[in-house]
Design goal:
single chain, alpha+beta, six-stranded antiparallel beta sheet, binds adenosine monophosphate, about 500 residues, binds magnesium ion, two-stranded parallel ribbon
Length: about 500
C-alpha cells in the first residue's frame, strides 16, 4: 500500500476526535510517517487490541490492512499524523528543545474505554529528531512492547503497546541492527516537558491553552478549584506519588527519569533502559549510561519530586504565586509515604496498621539488601510463611545468608501476623495478588530478543502471555522457568539509552 493511502476504519463507527490537534500549530508539526519497508508482524497484544475495540482478527483483516498502517505505510480514515514539541531536563540539566524525534502521533480514536491516542515509535525522522535517525531497533521495540504490557499486567499505570512491526531495514547503533515500530496507546502522551517548553519560551498563552486542555480532558475537577492550575499541579503530584510507590513495590527501575519522560497522567512512559530488580540492591542502576546513578532504584521517588518542581516552575506563570505552587507539591510527601507503606503492608500480607510496620519492612529490606536476596522471589515466597513455623519457611529462610538475622526478623513477623485476622491460607491468596511471580527480567527479554533477531517471534509471544498474568501461579513446567533466579550471564547484560 502506498503511503497516505487510506485503509478501512478499524471499527465501522470509529471516530477520531483528535483533540490534541485542535490545540494548533504551536504544539506540533504535521507530517507523515517514513514507512518501514517490507514490514512484518513481530508481536501483538490481544488485550490492548480489545481495549481499542478492534475485532479479534484485526491483524489479518484485509480491509484494515493493519500491518501497513502500523508500520507507517498507510492510514485509517481519521488519522492525522503529527510530531509534538516539548523540552525538558535531562539528568538534572536543562536540555532545551527535544520533542517527538521518532514518535508520531497518529490521532485519537474513540474506543469503548474512551478516547485513546495512538502513536508510532520509530516511524522516521521529524523536525525534532536532532541528530537521530527517527528509528527504533527491534531489540528496544520488543523491550518497550513487553515492558508496557507487563506493567499493565502488574496493575501499574502505563502507556500500552498494541504491537511491534519489523523490517530488514538496517539501523546503526553500536552495531548494525534492524528497524521496528512500536504502536503505543494512551489517553494522552503529554509530558512535563510539554509545559516546560512553553514556559521556557515565555509563551504564556500557549502554556495556558495546554493546561486548560489537560484540565478539561483529564482533570475536570480542577476547574472548580480556586486556582485550577495549582489544583492541576497537586493532582499530578499525587498521581506521580502513586506511580513512584508502584515502581518501588514491584521493583521497577525506569532508567531515564528525565522530565521529558514524565507523563502528566502519572503513567509509566518511554521504556528505554528500564529493568526489574533481581538481587536486591537499593542502589541498583539499570541504565548503563547513568554513570552517577541519578536514577538508581531507591532514588526514583526523590527524582519524581524533583521533576515535579520542574513542572511547578513551568506552571508558575499560570499559578501566579510561588508559595501556592510549593504548597501544591506538599501532598507528594505524605501521598508517597502513605502509598508506599500501604503497598509494603500489602506485600507482607498485613491488613491492619500498626506503628512498627514501617520498621518491620525496613528491617526486611535491609536483610534482603545485605544478602542480595532476589526481590521478586523473596516476596513471593514470603506469601507461604507459616505463622506456626513450618517446613515451608525453609524456602524463605534459605534465601538469606545470615540465617540468624532472618530468624530474628521472622519471629517479629510471626508475632505481628498473630495480631492479624484470618488464616495463613487466606494471607497467601492476598499476598499472591500483590507479590508477582513473574516480572520482565532482563534475561527473559534478552532470550526473546535474540530469538526474534533470528526470525522466531514465538518466545516474545510466550513471554507476553506469561507477563499478562504475573500474579497467577501458572505452574506448568514450561512457565515455571520464567519465575526462576536469573542465570549468571544476566549480570553481564548492559542496557543503555542507545535504542
Ligand atoms: P529518550 O532518551 O529516548 O527519552 O529521548 C530523548 C529525545 O531524543 C527525545 O526527543 C527523542 O524523541 C529523541 N530521540 C531518541 N532517539 C532518537 C532517534 N533514534 N531518532 C530521533 N530522535 C530520537
Ligand atoms: Mg523520551
Amino acid at each position: 500500500m502506498m503511503m497516505d493511502e487510506t485503509a478501512a476504519a478499524p471499527r465501522a463507527a470509529a471516530t477520531w476526535p483528535n483533540r490534541f490537534r485542535g490545540l494548533g500549530d504551536a504544539f506540533f508539526t504535521a507530517l507523515p510517517a517514513e514507512p518501514l519497508p517490507d514490514p512484518h508482524w513481530v508481536a501483538t497484544s490481544a488485550s490492548c487490541a480489545a481495549l481499542l475495540g478492534l475485532p479479534p482478527d484485526w491483524t489479518s483483516r484485509a480491509d484494515l490492512d493493519a500491518l501497513h498502517v502500523l508500520s507507517g505505510q498507510g492510514r485509517w480514515p481519521g488519522m492525522t499524523p503529527l510530531a509534538t514539541v516539548y523540552s525538558g531536563h535531562q539528568f538534572g540539566v536543562w536540555a532545551g528543545q527535544l520533542g517527538d524525534g521518532r514518535a508520531l502521533w497518529l490521532g485519537e480514536m474513540d474506543t469503548p474505554a474512551g478516547p485513546l491516542e495512538i502513536q508510532l515509535k520509530g516511524a522516521g525522522r521529524t523536525p525534532y529528531s536532532r541528530m537521530g535517525d527517527g528509528r527504533a531497533v527491534l531489540r528496544s521495540s520488543i523491550r518497550e512492547f513487553l515492558g508496557s504490557e507487563a506493567m499493565h499486567g502488574l496493575g501499574v499505570p502505563t502507556t500500552r503497546a498494541l504491537c511491534v512491526t519489523g523490517s530488514a531495514l538496517p539501523v546503526r547503533r553500536e552495531t548494525i541492527e534492524t528497524a521496528a515500530v512500536v504502536t503505543r496507546v494512551a489517553p494522552s502522551f503529554i509530558r512535563f516537558g510539554h509545559f516546560e517548553h512553553f514556559a521556557h519560551h515565555d509563551l504564556h498563552a500557549e502554556l495556558r491553552q495546554l493546561a486548560d486542555f489537560v484540565i478539561a480532558h483529564h482533570f475536570p475537577a480542577c476547574r472548580e478549584a480556586a486556582n485550577p492550575y495549582a489544583a492541576l499541579l497537586e493532582q499530578v503530584a499525587l498521581r506521580t506519588a502513586d506511580l513512584m510507590a508502584d515502581w518501588q513495590a514491584v521493583g521497577f527501575c525506569h532508567g531515564v527519569m528525565n522530565t521529558d519522560n514524565m507523563s502528566i497522567l502519572g503513567l509509566t512512559i518511554d521504556y528505554g533502559p528500564f529493568g526489574f530488580l533481581d538481587a536486591f540492591d537499593p542502589g541498583h542502576i539499570c541504565n548503563h549510561s547513568d554513570s552517577q546513578g541519578r536514577y538508581a532504584w531507591a532514588r526514583q521517588p526523590n527524582v519524581g519530586f524533583w521533576n515535579l518542581h520542574a513542572l511547578a516552575q513551568a506552571l508558575l506563570p499560570l499559578i501566579g504565586d510561588s508559595d501556592l505552587a510549593l504548597a501544591a507539591l506538599e501532598p507528594y510527601k505524605t501521598g508517597f509515604a502513605d502509598a508506599l507503606l500501604a503497598r509494603w503492608r500489602a506485600k507482607l500480607g498485613l491488613q491492619t496498621r500498626e506503628d512498627g510496620d514501617r520498621e518491620l519492612v525496613d528491617d526486611l529490606l535491609r536483610l534482603m539488601a545485605a544478602d542480595r536476596c532476589d526481590f521478586t522471589i523473596t516476596f513471593r515466597r514470603l506469601g507461604r510463611f507459616a505463622t506456626a513455623g513450618g517446613a515451608d519457611d525453609a524456602v524463605i529462610r534459605d534465601l538469606f545468608i545470615d540465617r540468624a538475622a532472618f530468624d530474628g526478623w521472622a519471629t517479629r513477623y510471626a508475632q505481628r501476623l498473630a495480631r492479624e485476622p484470618g488464616t495463613d491460607a487466606e494471607r497467601t491468596v492476598r499476598m499472591d495478588r500483590v507479590n508477582p511471580k513473574f516480572v520482565l527480567r532482563n534475561h527473559l527479554a534478552e532470550v526473546a530478543i535474540q530469538a526474534a533477531q533470528g526470525g522466531d517471534f514465538s518466545a516474545t509471544e510466550r513471554l507476553l502471555q506469561v507477563l499478562q498474568r504475573p500474579y497467577d501461579e501458572q505452574d506448568d513446567a514450561a512457565t515455571t522457568a520464567y519465575a526462576g533466579f536469573p542465570p549468571e550471564w544476566a549480570q553481564s547484560i548492559e542496557v543503555s539509552c542507545s535504542s
